[in-house]
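Problem: given the chain below (115 residues), write out its structure.
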Amino acid sequence: VQLQASGGGLVQAGGSLILSCAASESIFSNYHMGWYRQAPGKERELVATIFITDNTNYADSVKGRFTISRDRAENIAYLQMNSLKPEDTAVYYCKAYRIGRATYWGQGTVVTVSS
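Solution.
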């Protein structure tokens, strides 16, 4: 298993969760890391990316509420999710990618936000 996602769960609106994506060192050091989500009946969408340079970008829908980070010592990428809304309910996936190289996906972790 190249990527292992965890941390999903059930939370009330306004609450917080932190997702983790553990990767092998060979991937973590050389790939951009991203979080995606897929809500029922919808296409998978990009939530946040942290590049090899540690620059980040976010979907407009999560800016100011979500923070992506990486721990290079532990080879883990995190997605801190605050002020959660029911529309954040989805299966969340982590992805490691780099142009010209293989793309890796973690298994999904379910986030459910109740109103």
